[in-house]
Amino acid sequence: MSAARVLVVDDEESMRITLAANLELEGHEVVEAASGEEALRKVRERPVDVVLADIRMPGLHGVELHRHLRREQPGLPVVLMTAFAQESLVEDALAEGVFTVMHKPFDVAHLLRTLRHAASVPEVLVVDDSEDVAEATVEGLRLCGVRAQAVYDGDMALERMGSGKIDVCVVDLVMPGVTGPQVVERLRGAGQPVAIIAVSGHDVPEMMRQVAALGDVACMRKPISIRELAQVIARTRGRALARS
Amino acid sequence: MDEQTPGLEVHERATVAEVVTAVLRHDLRNRFSSIRNASYYLMRQVQKTELWKADPRMETFFQLIDRELVSAEELLSASGLRVPQEDSGRLRLCDVAERALAHSRVPVSVRVERTWQERALVQADAERLTLLIRCLIENAVEAMPGGGILGVHTLRGEEERVILEVTDTGPGIPQELRARVFEPFMTTKPGHAGLGLCIVQRLALRSRAWVELKAGEPVGTQVRVSFPIVEEAGASGGA
User: Fold this and answer.
1) Do both B120 and B143 map to the same domain?
2) Which pLDDT tens digit goes with each residue over B198-217?
3) 8 Å CB contact of B34 and A15
């Protein structure tokens, strides 16, 4: 993914023009909109690869804009921005499949990387030895608007990672054969830029510690709520990129 | 007019202050963002020119802009006026008042009168309670540029409450303004931001306390903060 067509939506002109300047400098094509309504019109006129929108805007706000876009253009990555430290809308947005939420003021280089990453439309890989659990998780994520696929063991996971489409891996820790921690270790060893969310159904503090020691791993306990998982994925996507 | 009514209005004002603060922060963050974006763009463009190599200050200054904006943002986030949660420590109000007094700058023209009639414990965070008392002391001192008497007292209130009273012998606050003193940006002193009592109000909420302001007797202003007393709980606690 090199140059993308980016729609920048913010009611603050100074924000719009400074973001556009930086994006254009990176070789992207920028479309500007001063409101959610204008953004919808522009997207209908001509599709874009990724949307960057402020949350708080008069009229149609960023989260509402994302809801419209999800219906009209499913799969279009949307990155939201907010200058509020505590924003109730953020939690909803994260659970509804926005790519991630950036908190202003952000590092511009980080934003540029995040948008480039979002525009490549990456997917989540769910690794669980229980097929039912894996498929149900994938289906739940899809309903939340998060692209995902399932595999049922560690070997399949490592193979699937080779496709280069995966940026987040949700790994069940307790699996026969290649265990969760081993999967994580191998992924890291292969230098794969992938964010890890470790899930465990049993009380396995030792394994959790093992995985946590590998660094930069989010841990969740079963039964996981899909809403929460979607939120963790979106947060991870905003963060993990800082390193790569 | 009932100046004793602490009820809903007090909380409403504090909530307004919270909203105003959040909106101010939001607007400032937006400004910071635009400046950061613009600076990053300019830096990238200047990097392509001879100037970048010729003058090392270019890089230094762009780093400086970024650093200053980051620290301004940190200040904004750290100033602590988030949704108030109740503080859980137990402190002796008069001890904290004594410490706050020791840390306040009181000019020699101001005489301090202190009495600790009530030595009960209150539920509070030491730092925040000190800040609350210092805000009141500073307000009182500033009301007496020509000198006067600063009073700091703890008294027994009704219904298991302990009262912190801070008084000054300044010109007092006109009756018509008294109801508005807890509003943010409300001040009778030129050059002041008018956040002192607004901050006091918010800090008081954390200790389930309420604040009232009256005309002093016979002159000046009297501010009272009424705290619920907490049990000694076997051990002395507090520290």
Assistant:
1) yes
2) 778 777 877 888 888 888 88
3) yes
Q: Looking at the 3D structure of chain B, how many domains does it have? A: 2
List pLDDT tens digits, range B66-91: 888 888 887 777 654 444 566 778 99
Residues of chain A neighbouring B27 (CB-CB closer than 8 A):
83
> Which pTM value belongs to this model?
0.64
Contact between B34 and A109 using a beta-carbon 8 Å cutoff? no
Residues B175 and B198 in one domain: yes
Same domain, B165 and B203: yes
Question: Do B83 and A85 make contact, defined as CB atoms within 8 angstroms?
Answer: no
Q: Using CB atoms, which residue from B30, B44, B82 is nearest to A104?
A: B30
- Does residue B15 form part of some domain? yes
Question: Could you tell me if B175 and B213 lie in one domain?
Answer: yes
C-beta atoms of A105 and B73 within 8 A = yes
Indicate yes or no: CB of A83 within 8 angstroms of CB of B30. yes
Residue that terminates a domain, selected from B55, B77, B99: B77
Question: Per the domain annotation, does B198 fall within a domain?
Answer: yes
Tell me whether residue B82 is in a domain: no
pLDDT per residue rounded down to tens, chain A (244 residues): 478 999 999 998 999 999 999 999 999 999 999 999 999 999 999 999 999 999 988 888 899 999 999 999 999 999 999 987 666 688 889 999 999 999 888 889 999 999 999 999 999 999 999 999 999 999 999 999 999 999 998 888 888 888 888 999 999 888 888 888 888 888 877 776 888 999 887 677 777 777 877 777 888 888 889 999 999 999 999 885 444 4
Q: B27 with B113, same domain?
A: no
Contact A25 B83 (CB under 8 A): no
Task: Give the one of A21, A86, A105 whose C-beta lies nearest to B33's C-beta.
Answer: A105
Q: Does one domain contain both B71 and B95?
A: no
In sequence order, what DSSP letters do the residues of chain A get, joined into one string? --S-EEEEE-S-HHHHHHHHHHHHHTT-EEEEESSHHHHHHHHHHS--SEEEEES--SSS-HHHHHHHHHHHSTT--EEEEE--SS-HHHHHHHHTT-SEEEESS--HHHHHHHHHHHHT--EEEEE-SSHHHHHHHHHHHHHTT--EEEESSHHHHHHHHTTS-EEEEEEES--SSS-HHHHHHHHHHTT---EEEEEESS--HHHHHHHHHTSSEEEEESSPPHHHHHHHHHHHHHHHTTT-
Residue A24 touches partner B, C-beta closer than 8 Å: no
Q: In terms of residue numbers, what domain contains B32?
A: 2-77
The verdict on residue B146 lying in a domain is yes
* H or E segment to which residue B134 belongs: helix B126-142
Do both B125 and B189 map to the same domain? yes
Interface contact B33-A106, CB threshold 8 A: yes
Kindly list the residues from chain A whose CB atom is less than 8 angstroms away from the CB atom of residue B29: 83, 104-105
Q: Which residues of A, range 37-96, sit inside 8 Å of B by Cβ?
A: 56, 83-86
**CB–CB contacts below 8 A, A to B:** 61
**Interface predicted TM-score of the whole assembly (ipTM), two decimals:** 0.75
